[in-house]
Design a protein that fits this description.
Number of strands: 0
Number of domains: 1
Order of helices and strands: HHHH
Radius of gyration: 20 Å
Distance between the termini: 38 Å
Helix content: 55-70%
Structural class: mainly alpha
Largest sheet: none
Shape: flat
Length: 81
Amino acid sequence: MIATLSGILGYEPSGTLRELIWSVDAKQKSDWDHTSELLANQTNLAAKKHVTSARRIHPFRNEKPVVQELTLNDLSDLVEF
């Protein structure tokens, strides 16, 4: 797994696995920033008007954070009395 993540990043493995995962996520978001801008520009040029934006195409940027409310039952599962 570490070798795969390092291959995606393009450098020798260093740091912890968590740091590598954060680095891969950041690289993928950065790559998609570039790609979604190109796709949006090409789409808008082909349509000869503004029909989409990079934010709508970007798979990471259009996500809404998942918020889950905790209940007492959830907390009781975590704590043993």
